[in-house]
Structure formats: structure tokens, C-alpha cells
Specification:
1497 residues, mainly alpha, two-stranded antiparallel ribbon, 66 helices, 4 strands
Length: 1497
């Protein structure tokens, strides 16, 4: 328009004077109709901004304006009151109104307007035609008519002033002030608030600092003036009003500030209306009505008819304040005003108290606006004549002022002290708007506009930001307001208002396109876009059309979608549970179908998959605020997004560094969403309705596609395990619901194509030990180097491993086929880690119930059905069919029996797995238990396996694993017989390995290890066949034993006698507290065997033979019926011609029946209280006489064959060491019934020995060592022991050698100090700490002589600070679980798929057949010879007697017995029941040549 004014008018156009009809100003009604119409058209066109009117009028405006003003200055001419004059007056008023409109439109502008330049650049006629005086007169006249004219004239003036240019508004205000001066009005209302300097308001005034004379006259508060000012200020933009270079604008600012400061200071509330039918305001928490308000003063400064104008002026004032504040802030941050602490503003912004004061004023005005107008006719006519706005319009204007106020001071920018004040102010604003919206639905669009302004200016704060508006926008979040009806309608109205505010801000349709920073916030934080998108999607399916339109607008902002993309979206109906067999839909799918299509189109847009993680997260946050129907809609609309995300996931993760984190966030949010749905359903189901459950299952299936199965498996596995661990380790109590949820989600995903990968990852979280060791077929040094740093340490199951295991029991019911390949790992974990074996149980017993449940589920779902036919073939069919599986190792057999049908290789795979655990597990208990499982499962043997066991034995010895070493030795003994001809017998290096292992372990002092080592040695020697062990094996054994440093003080260990080395190693198994009967029996058998196989390397009277003969003699004395035959058989196999007297003695000795049955009872620690005391004494006398007599005769024959000084010394040392090991002085020592018998027998044997060798072959030092032991036994409270010791003391006194100190026979009770025994330390208990050194020595011997790794080039020994963790078991239980088929009958082996187990066959060597496998030596069997003496050569060989067979009787009648076994049995059957003691001379004074007197002679 300015450019049109500057351009010259085209030629040939009519001037304005030509348009006016002739005489139109002279006669009121004289204007022609056509001319009046033309004038009206021209003026109306100009008022509407038509370009044609400007071009038509052109340069004739000044001339026409002056002429028109001269005609209109006097106003309409008054006429007489008649019917005709009334019509003429109306026409004249209408024409005069048109003249004023023309004058207002074409009044010359001030110099600030381009019209001024037009006036100066045009002809001089324009300047002279209309001057400033005319303009001032024109404005003065208009103001006069406004103030004093009739209502019709005032209305015409206001209409004309609305058409004037804004540059003339300062002139109008000036004329108002001048008119007030002419009326001699003084300012009665002072300015109380001043935010701007200059003008009449004074400079630098603070709030509430007004003085007399600086206010406004009452003229300015007239209704017509307020309307003039309101319309004028609303025409001026805030930016133009704030211009500092315009004096006119400064005056306008001053006037505006003075006017509004009065209202803000006084805050007058409306008076209570006394009009009949009026509504009395209700005072609420903040003032008047339910909107709140200020005080209840009774002024009339703001009346209902002027309220709209006052509110408009207040809004203009607030807009000006907000503009100036933003300008100062921009200038400060631009660096224009820098202070020491940052940007410094010109003046402080509006305070919180100022904003609250203004809010309270607006609340009171809103209460006034809600009051009805006066109902009188005069009042209504006045309101209609003045053309004032209706109260509803006043409310709109008040809301507009509130919008402007919200921009004055954005919340959240104040000091911390002002935070609480701001929070309260924000709450008051929202409460005010919510109440207004609910009480006046007609104002809903304007309330939404105010809410949008609130969000634009306060969107950055948590309380008033997007989060709050989102919560209000969700329909399920709204609660009914107190005292209101129509709760549903009110909640919907609130949701629509808040949602519309969000949409207005997001799409920039609010104030000048300003979105409150939402676009920038969305770019900085993707969650904001997700929040907005969730709102858009949720409202797409609403049945309310405005809500759907708002959702579409918001969606177009967040995810712009082209028409082509929307058109290409499929028209498929959304999935529903009814399609999958669920319940029928509860509502029509009309709206959800279109929303689902739109959501599918949005999800298919490029880059939309990146929005899914925050979108799910936002839905989780808002879940509790949604109704059930809205939850279903949200899950339905997000399903396409999940499908697209699942399809794009591999590329997204591979190409974007944010991809893995986005995948984790999406799965975690979906899990949280599932958790919320499950909680809403009471934790019984995964969702409240079938639709929710169907959508959740579909969502998980959409993510777990075959393409992204590995990604899903890894990420989801970690999320589920973390959640399960948190639930299981909660401080308060275990969250069972959370654990159940994790299992349910796992089952959901296992129903998808990602099941194999997810199951593998889940099972990978269980405890496992992979084969990381070097191969056993390689150099042993490499294996030892790998094993050496792996010191045993306790490794309890972690929380993750426990949680992974506790999620397994439900899996066999869902996917048994996938679990079949993993059966060995599952069964091994159940048995070893959760079977309750010692040392393996987790804390608080976690997993035990789950293990039983998992085993039952595996058997029930994988094993063949136990029908009647199958159950009848199973010895344990009833137990297995009822799933009453035992726990721990006892379950191995039943599990293999039952599950072998579906997994034929189960036994072999489980066996390999258990051996791998046994070799690689650093936890001693897990390693031991795995080895025990292997022992139950193994049914085959090969050299590599035995080599592996030897290597494991070396590691177990270093770690102090005694039970593990015991089991390894037992396996190495039991496995070789399993080698068959088809599999290939064991080669010679393997036998050398076994022999070296057994020889090395003889150095171990723990009793159970020593016993197992002896059994392994005997089994190895017996397995070499009838010809006995080869020279290579015997040499290997002797090398190991000679290398052991067991006897200190010998300089050259390699040259010491073999008999000395063997006695040091083996004799410790014959005595001591820890030497059990089975240990003594197997040790005696080992002495016999070694004395035989090494007979050509040792003299006939070697220590081993002495120890064997003494053992048999001691056994015979204490009542062992088979001692004499065994001794005779031993002498026949390895004796010499010198021992013929001993052989005859053992052959001819028959133990009397009374002695055999009653000897132990008679010589026991207590005597029976019942019976005949005289009879007991007679039995004791008979037994004692026999024992003493046999001892005398034995040592008489012994002295002939073993007459050397060394034999005497060793015999005396051996017997005294045996006696010291029994501790006869300790009456409190625990022992069996035969303990006292053994002590008495040893005392009798010592007495008989001294009779043969003392005093000539005994040194005084030996007496000094023996005497304290005998004296201590003399003080025993047990009568047999004390009597035997007394007899021995008497013999020692009588036969003491020359130089024996008499003091040794003093009967003072002292603790004896026995001489060192002829063996390397006593046996110790299984868990004793003092046996660890012997284990390390045994490990060193095993490393060098069995594994072939020198100590110098092998791994270093354990450091001093190494403390291997001990296992819970130091010794294996005496009775363990049977092998899987040990108790199965032939029918059981016919089960389908049952593995074939073969029990170990007995050893082939007859001499150790029963002794190795049985816990004690049998009394009815005699050992044979493992090796013929003829094979080694030598004249002293003795062929074993044919009578020493297994059929031989335990008692011998004499050496002349011969014939077949049947004949011998018949002969024995003729022996009478009562044996006659006359067969043996029991008299101590017998004339037998074995007596001491005969020997002396």
C-alpha cells in the first residue's frame, strides 16, 4: 500500500470530487441514489484495502478531504421531531458517518509515514490544502463528539478512529489530555507500577512508587475512552510501540503504563450484584468464583461494560513488557551489556510477585466477566446502543490478556529461592484454565490458545513442560473435578485442550509461528519426538473427530509423510486376538483400522526405526495413565513399528554405532511394558485381556525374526538375566513375580525362530568348562605347564548362573526337541551343581527345587512313555514312571536308563563332559563331583584315558585334593580290566604308567590314599599274567622307590638295600590308629607279593619276610583262623631251606575251637558280667596258654632261620614299634574289642623274642628303648595288658645284657618316647594337615617316574603363599551310588535305547583277586602266586604247594594231608565238634627243641 501511495496516479482517472454526487453536502437527502452508491462502494473498497480505490482516488485526496471536512465539521444537522424528520435524521447520520470514514481513511499521516513523503514530493496543493491545524482540529472535534455527543455520534466517531492510521493515535491521546486540562481535571489515580521510563509516567519509577500528579484523569477511565484506547493500542504492534526513536510512541507507552499500573495496584473486584436473577460469585481458594481472584474491594473502576476494553489494554501492556524483556535478553547475550558475572540487563525482568499480582487481577476480571449483564430495558438498550461486547467477548479478551501475561516472565529462569513461588504460580495458572474450561465449554478454543501460550513460554520446565501436557492429554489420566458433573465430558475437554496446545506449539500455528522451542528440543532429545508421536498415534484411533484431526496434525510435524507413502500403505485390517482364536473384539475396528494403516505408513518411513526405542520408553512411562482400551490401541499401533524395527535391525546395528544401544533399549522397554501388563493382570497372566496378550506375543515375535535371531538372543538374554538376578538378590525379599515374568518372556521368545540361538546363549550362561588343556597325547610337560598355575580355589555359582538355571525348568514343556542335544549339560548341571553333593550346594539352597523340577520335566517330556510293558521290564519302573528321581549322584543311573532311549549317545556324551569338568574345573568340589559322575558312567578304557587320569592325579596332589586322588587311583585300578581284545589291550607304556603311579603314591601318608596306591600296585602286578610282571615294570618300580628320600642319614640313596626302601614305604600300613583292617590286610598282601617278585634281589631273611611272618603270627595269636595256612603258603612260595622249621610249625598248627571263638572276648578290655566267672577264667587261661606257647615255638623256629644280628635288631624294633603304635598306656584311647588283644599278643611276642635273642644278641640301648614302653603298659588299668607287661618286665630283668642301666626298670609312670619306627612316618587321617608334604613328594615322584617330566624342566613347585582350597570331601564315602546298570536286571537292558554298561570284571590274578576288591581279607581263600620263581631262576625256588588252593581248609591237621580237595574235605568232616587241646603241647616247659634251654644248649 505504501508503494501505491508513492507512485503518481495514472492519467485520465476521475478525481474524488467527481465521484461525489452534486449537492450531497447541502441537502441531507438530496444526493442521488447512484452517486451515493458509488461513493459508498469507493469508501468501502478503500476501507477493505482495495488497490482499485487507491488508484481511482489518486492525487485528488487532499482536495476532496478538505472539502469533505468543511462539510462534516459541523456534524449532522438537527431536524424537527417528526416521522419524516426521523427518517431524514437517520439518513443524515448515515451520510455523516460515511464522511467521517472518508476523512479518517485519508487523513494526512505524520512524517513517520510514507504519506508524509508523498505530500512533500507532490504538488504544493497537497501541503496547502490540508495542514496540521486542520488535522488537530479534526482530532479535537472527534474527541469532543466522543466525550459529549450522543451514543450514535460516539459510535460513528469510534468507527472513524478505527480507520485512522496508527501515526494519528498519539494525536488522539494528546487531544484527550488537552480536553482534560480544559475541563480542569486533576489526576486522581496515580501510577503505582512503572516498568518503563519517559513520557508522563516519569523515569525510573519503581513498583508502587507513584506520587501525586503523575496519574491519569478520570477522563481516561470513561467507557468510550477505554474503548478508543483499547482499539487503538491493539492496532499498534508491540515492536512499534516499543520504538525508542518516536516521541509519539513514548507518550503512548507512558499512557499505557499509567493506565494499567492503576489496575494492577488496586486489583478491584466486582461488586456483588443486587440485580434479581444475578449469580453471586463463589469465593474459592484464590478469590472469586472457581477461577480464583484477588481482593473483594467495592470499586467500580472496571465495570462489566468496560471490562473487555480494560483487559485489552492490559494485554497490550503485557505484550510490551514481554517484548522489551526479550530484547534486553538478546542484547545482553549478544555481548552488548557484559558484567563481571555474565550478561547484565538494563532493568530487572518482571518479578514473580508482579506476575502473580497480574494473575490475580485477571482472575477477578474473569469472575466479573462471568456475571450476567443488567436485565433492565434501559441497561440493555444502552448496551445495545453503545455496541459494547457481550460478556462472553470480555472473557475472551481476558484470556488474551492472560496469554500475554504468560510471556512476561517464563518460569524456570529465576533464582532457587523463587522456584517454589514459580511452582505455585504455575499450578494456579493451570487450575484457573482447567476450571474455566470445565465451566464454560464455549471458551474452549480460547482456553486452548492460552494453554498453548503457557506451553510455548514454559516448555522447558519439568512441571509445566511437555511431560505435564502429555499427562493431561492422555484421557485416562484425568480425574473428576470436585463438585462438577459430566466427568467424562470434562475429562475429554481437558484432554482436547491440552492436546491442542501441544499441537499448536509443535506445528507453529500459535503466536507468529513460535513453537516454544519444541523443534529445537526435539532435535536435541529424541524422547520428545517419541512423546509427541505417541500422542499422535494414540489419538489417531479416537472416535472424536477433532482429536483425530489434532493427532494427524501432530503426526505430520513429527513424521512427515507424503501422500504417495500413505496411499501405498496396505489396507489390511489390524491384527486382533479374535483372528488368533481369542475373544471377540470389544469395539468396532473402524477407527483402529485407519489408525493402524496410518501407523504402518509412518513406521515404514526411512529412519522411523530409530524412533521405536524412545517411543516404547515413553509408553512405559505413560502406561499407568492409559485406560485398558488405550493400552490395547497403543500396543496395536506400535506393532508395525516393532515389525519394521525387527526387519531393519541387522543393518541398523551393523551400520550405526547407536544400533546396539537402540536394540537394548527397545528390548528393555518391551520387557518393562510386558511387566506392566502382567502386573495389571494380577501377575497371573501376561496381560489383562486376550487382545493384550496377543499383541505382546506378536510384538516379541516381530522382533525375534530369523534374520536377527543372534542379535536378539544375545541382548535379550542379558536383559532377562539382569532382571532375574535383581529379583533374586533383592534386599527385602525375592521378587517371585519378576522371576516368573522373565520366564514367561523367555517362553514367548522361544516360540519364535530365534529359539535355537536364544537357548544356546541361555545355556551358555550356565557353569561350563571348555577343553582348554593341551591334548593328552602330546608332551606331558605341556599339560603340566598348563595345569600348574591353575591352583584350586572355591568358585561358587554366581548369581547369573543361578538365575540362568532357575529359568530352565519350564523349557522342556515348550521345546523338548531343542533340549535333546543339550541333555548332557543339563543333567550334569543338575547333578553336580544342584544335586546337594558336599561343597557344591549354592547359598540358601538356591536351585535345588529347580533341579528336581527340571529333571522331572526332562524325563516326562523326553523319555518314552512308561506303559505297562515298559514298566514291567524295569526293576525301577515304578520309581521312574512316578518321576520320583533321587538327588545328586544317585540320579545318574535312573536318568541314563530313562533318557537313553531318546539320546542314544547320552552316556558317552555325559561321560566326556564330566571328565572335561574334572580336568578343567578349578573348584575342588565341582571337579571331584564331576569325576564321581565320570566313574559312574565310564565303561571303557584306553591308554589316553589312563594318561589323562594320571595327569589329573598330579594336579590333584598339588592341590591337596585327597578324595579326588583317591578316586583317580581307584579308577586307574578298576579301568584296565575293562580293556577287551576287540578294543585292544593296554600297551606296555600304559602299564609302566600305572606301575609308576602306584609306586609314587606309596609315599602318601593319608591312609585312604596309601591303601588305594597299594591296591593299584597289586592290581597292576596281578594283571601281567601268570608269568608275573616283566623286568621292565619291576625295574621301574625299584627306580621309583630308590629315588624316594624316605630314610634320612643315608648318603647314597640309590645304593641302599631294596628291602630297607620297601619296608620304609609299606610297613606304615600295618599299624597305627589310621590303619584300618582293610588297609592292614592289603598291606600284608603287598608285602607278600613284593617279597616274592623281588626274591632274587633280596636275601631270604629280608625285612619283608620278617614283617609278613610277624603279621601272620600276631594274627594267629589273636585268633585269626586263616593266619597259619597263609603263612605256610607264603613260606612255600618264597621261603628258603632255613625256614623249614617255620613251615612245619605253621602247617602243623591247628587253632583250638575254644581259642578261635573266645580268644578276643576273653582278652578284651571288659569281661562279661553274666555267666560263670570260673568258666571265663578257664577260657582265658586256655587262650593265654595257647598264645604264649605258639609264640615260644614260633620264635624258636624263627631264631634258626633269622639268626643274624640285623634280623634280631629289626625284629625287636618292629615289634616295639607296633606296640608303641597301639599306645598301651592310654586306656582312654578309642579302639575295637580286639585292641587289648593285640597289645597283649605283642607283649607275649616280645617276651618270646627276648627269650631267644637276649642277652647275647640284644644291646643295652635296645633295652633302654623298650623298657619305658613296657613300664607304661604295666600301669594300664586293663588286667590282661598289665599282666602281660609284668611278665615281659620280669623276662627283661632276667635277660638284661651287660651294661643295661637298672634305672630303666623303675616302675614310675612316665610318658614313653619310642624309637623311630622302621617306616616313613605313620598314616594320617584323610583330612589331616600333616600329610600335605607327602602328597607333594608323591606328586614329584609321579611327575618324574610316571609322566616322564624332569623336575628341572617341569613346572615350578607351588609358591609358599599358595593355599589351594580344600574340597568338602577328604575321603570318598564308603558306599557310593551304583553304576547305571549295576542294579538293573536283564529285562532292564532291553529298554529301548538303553546304553550298554558292563561292570568291571574281577582281576585275573588269583593272589589278589578278592583282596583288592574286598574291604578286608577273606578267611576262606588263600592267595596264589602271581609269578613263578622259576622264571627268575635260582636254586632256592620253592614250588607252591598244591594244597594251598582256594579249597583248602582254614585249619590244618598236619603236613601229611594229601589227596584231592574232596578227599581233604571228607577228612576234615570227620573232625569231632570238640577239639582236643592234646594235639598241641601248650605247656611252657615243653621239651621241644624250640625252647630256650634247648637253643642255649
Amino acid at each position: 500500500a505504501a508503494a501505491l501511495f508513492l507512485s503518481p496516479p495514472p492519467a485520465g482517472r476521475r478525481a474524488l470530487i467527481e465521484i461525489l454526487p452534486a449537492g450531497w453536502g447541502e441537502g441531507v437527502g438530496g444526493a442521488g441514489g447512484a452517486g451515493s452508491a458509488a461513493l459508498e462502494a469507493a469508501l468501502c473498497a478503500e476501507s477493505d484495502g482495495s488497490v482499485l480505490a487507491c488508484e481511482q482516488l489518486g492525487s485528488s485526496v487532499p482536495l476532496a478531504w478538505a472539502a469533505v471536512w468543511r462539510q462534516a465539521a459541523a456534524g449532522p444537522r438537527p431536524l424537527p421531531a417528526s416521522s419524516a424528520s426521523v427518517a431524514a435524521a437517520a439518513d443524515g447520520l448515515l451520510l455523516w458517518r460515511k464522511q467521517l470514514r472518508l476523512l479518517a481513511l485519508y487523513a494526512p499521516r505524520r512524517m513517520s509515514h510514507p504519506m508524509d513523503r508523498l505530500m512533500h514530493s507532490s504538488s504544493s496543493r497537497l501541503v496547502t490544502a490540508v495542514g496540521s491545524a486542520e488535522i488537530e482540529a479534526f482530532m479535537r472535534r472527534l474527541i469532543w463528539w466522543l466525550l459529549h455527543g450522543q451514543a450514535s455520534r460516539a459510535s460513528a466517531v469510534l468507527e472513524a478512529l478505527r480507520l485512522t492510521h496508527t501515526s494519528l493515535i498519539p494525536e488522539a491521546v494528546h487531544q484527550l489530555r488537552a480536553h482534560a486540562v480544559e475541563r480542569a481535571e486533576t489526576p486522581q489515580r496515580g501510577s503505582g507500577l512503572s516498568l518503563f521510563g519517559g513520557g508522563h509516567g516519569g523515569s525510573g519509577k519503581q513498583h508502587g512508587s507513584g506520587a501525586a500528579g503523575d496519574g491519569l484523569p478520570d477522563l481516561f477511565f470513561d467507557a468510550r475512552v477505554l474503548r478508543l484506547l483499547a482499539e487503538a493500542y491493539n492496532r499498534i504492534p508491540a515492536s512499534a510501540l516499543a520504538a525508542a526513536d518516536s516521541p509519539g510512541m513514548a507518550a503512548l507507552r507512558s499512557t499505557l503504563e499509567q493506565l494499567n499500573s492503576i489496575w494492577l495496584r488496586e486489583k478491584h473486584a466486582p461488586e456483588a450484584s443486587t440485580t434479581p436473577g444475578a449469580v453471586t460469585p463463589v469465593h474459592g481458594h484464590h478469590g472469586v468464583h472457581h477461577f480464583g481472584g484477588g481482593g473483594a474491594g467495592a470499586g467500580a473502576r472496571v465495570e462489566p461494560r468496560t471490562l473487555g476494553h480494560a483487559a485489552a489494554l492490559l494485554g497490550a501492556y503485557f505484550r510490551l513488557i514481554a517484548l522489551r524483556a526479550r530484547e534486553r535478553e538478546r542484547a545482553a547475550w549478544a555481548g552488548g551489556l557484559e558484567g563481571p558475572d555474565g550478561p547484565k540487563l538494563e532493568a530487572p525482568p518482571a518479578s514473580v510477585s508482579f506476575v502473580r499480582n497480574a494473575l490475580e487481577l485477571l482472575q477477578s476480571w474473569m469472575a466479573l466477566a462471568c456475571l450476567p449483564l443488567p436485565s433492565s430495558a434501559a441497561g440493555g438498550a444502552a448496551a445495545r446502543a453503545s455496541n459494547m461486547p457481550a460478556p462472553a467477548d470480555a472473557r475472551v479478551v481476558v484470556l488474551g490478556a492472560l496469554e500475554a501475561l504468560l510471556a512476561v516472565r517464563p518460569l524456570g529462569n529465576g533464582s532457587p529461592e523463587e522456584t517454589e513461588l514459580e511452582r505455585g504460580l504455575e499450578s494456579d495458572v493451570r487450575r484457573f484454565l482447567d476450571a474455566l474450561l470445565l465451566s464454560a465449554p464455549v471458551l474452549a478454543p480460547h482456553v486452548r490458545s492460552a494453554l498453548a501460550a503457557h506451553l510455548r513460554h514454559n516448555g522447558g520446565r519439568d512441571g509445566a513442560g511437555l511431560a505435564l501436557f502429555m499427562r493431561k492429554s492422555l484421557r485416562g489420566a484425568h480425574k473428576p473435578a470436585f463438585g462438577l458433573t459430566g466427568v467424562d465430558a470434562g475429562a475429554a475437554a481437558l484432554a482436547r485442550a491440552y492436546f491442542a496446545a501441544i499441537v499448536d506449539c509443535a506445528d507453529g500455528s500459535g503466536e507468529a509461528g513460535y513453537d516454544g522451542g519444541l523443534a529445537a528440543a526435539r532435535r536435541a532429545d529424541g524422547r520428545i519426538s517419541a512423546q509427541l508421536l505417541l500422542l499422535a498415534l494414540l489419538h489417531q484411533g479416537a472416535q472424536d473427530a477433532p482429536m483425530r484431526e489434532l493427532g494427524a496434525r501432530l503426526a505430520r510435524v513429527i513424521c512427515p509423510l507424503s501422500r504417495e507413502a500413505l496411499t501405498a500403505a496396505p489396507h489390511a485390517a489390524p491384527p486382533h486376538a479374535a483372528i488368533a482364536g481369542g475373544a471377540a473384539p470389544t469395539e468396532p475396528l473402524l477407527y483402529s483400522a485407519s489408525a493402524f494403516r496410518y501407523s504402518s505408513a509412518l513406521a515404514a518411513a526411512p529412519g522411523a526405526h530409530e524412533t521405536l526405542p524412545p517411543l516404547l520408553s515413553v509408553l512405559v512411562e505413560r502406561f499407568s495413565q492409559l485406560s485398558l482400551a488405550e493400552r490395547e490401541d497403543a500396543l496395536l499401533l506400535l506393532l508395525p513399528w516393532l515389525q519394521v524395527f525387527g526387519a531393519r535391525m541387522p543393518q541398523f546395528v551393523a551400520s550405526d554405532e547407536y544400533g546396539p544401544a537402540a536394540l537394548h533399549a527397545a528390548l528393555a522397554s518391551l520387557l518393562a511394558l510386558t511387566r506392566l501388563c502382567s502386573a495389571a493382570a494380577g501377575h497371573e497372566l501376561i496381560g489383562e485381556t486376550s487382545q493384550v496378550r496377543f499383541l505382546l506375543e506378536s510384538g516379541w515375535a516381530a522382533l525375534a525374526s530369523p534374520a536377527n535371531a543372534p542379535l536378539i538372543a544375545t541382548t535379550l538374554h542379558s536383559i532377562l538375566l539382569d532382571a532375574h538376578v535383581r529379583a533374586a538378590t533383592a534386599d527385602a525379599a525375592v521378587d517371585v513375580h519378576e522371576q516368573t515374568l522373565c520366564v514367561r518372556v523367555l517362553l514367548l521368545t522361544l516360540r519364535t525362530p530365534a529359539a535355537p540361538e536364544l537357548l544356546s546363549v541361555l545355556l551358555g550362561s550356565l557353569r561350563a568348562y571348555g577343553p582348554t588343556s593341551p591334548h593328552v597325547d602330546g608332551p606331558a610337560g605341556a599339560w603340566l605347564a598348563w595345569r600348574a598355575p591353575r591352583i584350586a580355589e572355591a568358585q561358587p555359582l554366581t548369581a547369573t548362573e543361578l538365575s540362568a538355571f532357575e529359568m530352565l525348568p519350564r523349557l522342556p514343556h515348550e521345546l523338548p526337541a531343542l533340549l535333546r542335544p543339550h541333555l548332557p549339560a543339563l543333567l550334569h548341571t543338575c547333578v553336580v551343581c544342584h544335586g546337594g553333593e558336599p561343597g557344591t550346594a549354592p547359598d540358601h539352597g538356591r536351585g535345588s527345587e529347580h533341579a528336581a523340577e527340571l529333571l522331572d520335566a526332562l524325563v516326562a517330556n523326553l523319555a518314552p512313555g512308561a506303559d505297562g510293558a515298559d514298566a514291567s521290564r524295569c526293576a525301577k519302573g515304578a520309581e521312574l514312571s512316578s518321576l520320583g528321581l533321587p538327588r545328586g549322584l544317585e540320579a545318574v543311573g535312573p536318568l541314563v536308563l530313562r533318557l537313553g532311549g531318546v539320546a542314544p549317545t547320552l552316556a558317552a556324551d555325559w561321560r566326556a563332559l564330566s571328565l572335561c569338568w574334572a580336568l578343567h574345573a578349578e573348584d575342588p568340589d565341582l571337579s571331584l563331583t564331576s569325576l564321581r559322575v565320570f566313574a559312574l558312567l565310564n565303561s571303557q578304557v584306553n591308554p589316553a584315558l589312563l594318561h589323562s587320569l594320571a595327569l589329573a592325579l598330579w594336579g590333584g596332589l598339588r592341590d591337596g585334593g585327597r578324595a579326588k586322588a583317591q578316586l583317580l587311583l581307584r579308577l586307574m585300578r578298576e579301568l584296565p580290566p575293562l580293556a577287551t581284545a576287540s578294543d585292544g589291550a593296554l600297551d606296555e607304556p600304559t602299564w609302566l604308567l600305572l606301575a609308576g603311579t602306584a609306586a609314587a603314591l606309596l609315599a602318601a601318608r593319608p591312609a585312604h590314599l596309601f591303601e588305594e596306591a597299594v591296591r593299584l600296585l597289586l592290581a597292576t602286578l596281578a594283571a601281567q599274567g601268570d608269568n608275573g610282571p616283566s623286568e621292565l615294570i619291576l625295574d621301574r618300580l625299584s627306580d621309583v622307590w630308590r629315588a624316594a628320600d624316605f630314610v634320612p642319614g643315608i648318603a647314597d640313596q640309590a645304593r641302599r638295600p631294596l628291602e630297607e626302601v620297601l619296608s620304609c614305604l609299606i610297613l606304615k600300613g600295618l599299624s597305627g590308629e589310621e590303619a584300618s583292617p582293610s588297609c592292614r590286610g592289603i598291606t600284608l598282601l603287598a608285602l607278600e607279593t613284593l617279597a616274592e617278585v623281588y626274591s632274587d634281589l633280596m636275601p631270604p631273611n629280608n625285612r619283608l619276610v620278617i614283617a609278613v611272618l610277624f603279621s601272620h603270627t600276631l594274627a594267629l595269636i589273636i585268633g585269626a583262623a586263616d593266619a597259619a595256612p597263609r603263612a605256610a603258603a607264603f613260606l612255600e612260595r618264597c621261603g628258603s631251606a632255613l625256614a623249614e622249621r617255620l613251615l612245619d610249625l605253621f602247617r602243623s598248627t591247628i587253632l583250638p575251637r575254644a581259642v578261635a571263638l573266645e580268644l578276643r572276648a576273653a582278652m578284651g578290655p571288659t569281661r562279661s558280667s553274666g555267666g560263670d566267672p570260673k568258666g571265663d577264667a578257664d577260657v582265658a587261661d586256655v587262650a593265654g596258654a595257647f598264645a604264649r606257647a605258639f609264640a615260644e615255638r614260633f620264635f624258636g623256629a624263627f631264631a634258626l632261620a633269622f639268626s643274624s644280628h640285623d634280623n634280631c635288631d629289626f625284629a625287636l624294633l618292629l615289634l616295639s614299634s607296633w606296640l608303641a603304635a597301639e599306645s598301651p598306656w592310654n586306656d582312654e584311647r578309642a579302639g575295637g574289642p580286639g585292641r587289648a588283644t593285640r597289645e597283649v599278643a605283642l607283649l607275649w611276642m616280645l617276651q618270646a623274642l627276648l627269650r631267644q635273642f637276649a642277652p647275647h644278641d640284644v644291646a643295652p640301648a635296645q633295652f633302654e628303648t623298650l623298657a619305658p614302653l613296657v613300664v607304661a603298659a604295666f600301669h594300664s588299668r586293663r588286667a590282661p595288658v598289665s599282666a602281660a607287661a609284668e611278665a615281659l618286665l620280669s623276662e627283661m630283668v632276667a635277660r638284661a645284657p651287660r651294661g643295661t642301666p637298672p634305672s630303666i626298670f623303675a616302675l614310675a609312670a612316665t610318658q614313653p618316647v619310642p624309637a623311630p619306627p622302621p617306616w616313613c612316618g605313620p598314616l594320617v587321617a584323610a583330612g589331616a594337615a600333616d600329610g600335605q608334604d607327602s602328597l607333594l613328594s608323591a606328586a614329584a615322584l609321579l611327575q618324574v617316574h610316571a609322566l616322564g617330566v624332569p623336575l628341572t624342566s617341569g613346572p615350578p613347585p607351588l609358591p609358599d603363599d599358595a593355599h589351594p582350597a580344600p574340597a568338602a570331601l577328604a575321603q570318598l564315602p564308603s558306599e557310593g551310588p551304583q553304576r547305571p546298570l549295576a542294579e538293573a536286571s536283564d529285562e532292564q537292558s532291553d529298554l529301548p535305547g538303553s546304553p550298554s554298561f558292563t561292570a568291571p570284571a574281577p582281576l585275573s590274578c588269583t593272589c589278589v583277586r578278592s583282596s583288592i576288591s574286598a574291604p578286608s581279607l577273606p578267611s576262606a581263600s588263600l592267595p596264589g602266586t602271581p609269578r613263578s620263581r622259576a622264571s627268575r631262576g635260582g636254586s632256592s625256588a620253592i614250588t607252591p604247594s598244591s594244597s594251598c588252593t582256594e579249597d583248602s581248609a582254614p585249619f590244618f591237621a598236619g603236613s601229611t594231608e594229601s589227596g584231592t580237595p574232596n578227599e581233604r574235605a571228607a577228612a576234615r568232616s570227620t573232625v569231632p565238634e570238640e577239639e582236643d587241646d592234646s594235639e598241641l603241647d601248650l605247656s611252657p616247659s615243653s621239651d621241644d627243641d624250640d625252647t630256650p634251654s634247648s637253643r642255649t644248649e
